[in-house]
Automatic annotation (TrEMBL):
UniProt GO BP: D-alanine transmembrane transport; L-alanine transport; L-isoleucine import across plasma membrane; L-valine import across plasma membrane
Organism: Actinokineospora auranticolor
Superkingdom as given in the UniProt entry: Bacteria
Ranges for domain ABC transporter: 7-253
Keywords (A to Z) from UniProt: ATP-binding, Nucleotide-binding, Transport
PANTHER family named in the record: AMINO ACID ABC TRANSPORTER ATP-BINDING PROTEIN, CONSERVED COMPONENT OF ABC TRANSPORTER FOR NATURAL AMINO ACIDS-RELATED
A GO cellular component annotation in the UniProt record: plasma membrane
Name of this chain's protein: Branched-chain amino acid transport system ATP-binding protein
Length: 287
């Protein structure tokens, strides 16, 4: 792909005291791409997301969005067009699903303090537009029917999707998802895979952290593998899953089991492709 990447990290390092959590990590995310970030526990994946979203200021290196350097300020990064979800769900439990999404929408609104103080017509129009867009997004993620439920009463999988709707409410160019299928059953995981394809179709590029490699390899155009804070391998799912260093480092298998693992993944993917074709899968499936 040519042109300026939508998101680029160059030589990002993050040192906590004596611990180097990230060492000169690079990432290039192109328009329309779904990129997977995998690696063992403690590899630095969430730290990297924190550096991309301004929560941490990298010790060294830069992060740019369409060529412009991003500030070390999470709110400003959101306004610039990078949204994220967290590994641990961070909803407002006593608010409804709709209210949670409207909160995300507010980061996009340009209401001045006087408008909100006097609740004038401009304020009311803005609030109505935020509500309408939030309802649309709830429909998009499959939660329209429960928009009035308190978020704490929603099943776990729905809470994860609600977080995605709230992130989308900020109108991002890039969406970062930290373990979006953690704790989900296979049906919910598949629904999430389809949702991410649908998000890409709306023009949002996506980076996904996930431990479920089957999910990552069947979802992503490009996969980066972090091990001990360093980029070990990157490339297409085929390149990455066939790399013995990945299987050995990531799955902790001794070399003589590597070949069996590679065969296992290849077989599973072949089976999966067949199911999708029988079901007449979407465009996203065929990528
Ligand atoms: N704020 C912090 N202060 C000190 N050390 C930190 C901080 N945040 C992360 N670390 C350390 O950085 C390393 C990378 O952690 P990180 O959470 O980024 O890994 P991860 O790949 O996301 O792991 P997991 O898959 O378990 O979520 C770990 O050794 C962790 O203890």
């Amino acid at each position: 792909m040519t042109g300026t990447p939508v998101l680029a990290a160059r030589d990002v390092s993050m040192v906590f005291g004596g611990l180097t959590a990230l060492s000169e990590v690079n990432l290039t995310l192109d328009e329309g791409q779904i990129l997977g970030l995998i690696g063992p526990n403690g590899a630095g994946k969430t730290t990297f997301f924190n550096c991309l979203t301004g929560l941490y200021t990298p010790t060294r290196g830069t992060v740019t969005l369409r060529g412009t350097r991003l500030p070390s300020d999470p709110a400003a990064v959101t306004v610039a067009g990078v949204a994220r979800t967290f590994q641990n769900i961070r909803l407002f439990p006593s608010m409804t699903a709709l209210e949670n999404v409207v909160v995300g929408r507010h980061s996009r609104m340009k209401q001045g303090p006087l408008a909100s103080l006097f609740h004038g017509p401009a304020y009311r129009r803005g609030e109505q537009a935020a509500r309408d867009r939030s309802l649309e997004l709830l429909e998009f993620v499959g939660l329209g029917r429960v928009h009035d439920e308190l978020s704490r009463n929603l099943p776990y999988g729905d809470q994860r999707r609600l977080e995605i709707a709230r992130a989308l409410a900020t109108d991002p160019s890039v969406l970062l998802l930290d373990e979006p299928t953690a704790g989900m059953n296979p049906q919910e995981t598949e629904a999430t895979r389809q949702l991410i394809f649908a998000i890409r179709e709306t023009g949002v590029a996506v980076v996904v952290i996930e431990h479920d490699t089957k999910f990552i390899f069947s979802l992503c155009d490009h996969v980066s593998v972090l091990v001990q804070g360093k980029l070990l391998v990157e490339g297409t799912p085929d390149v990455v899953r066939g790399d013995p260093r990945v299987i050995e480092a990531y799955l902790g298998k001794p070399p003589d089991e590597v070949e069996a693992e590679v065969r296992h993944y290849a077989d599973e993917t072949a089976d999966h492709t067949q199911v999708i074709e029988l079901d007449g899968g979407s465009e996203g499936d065929k990528r």
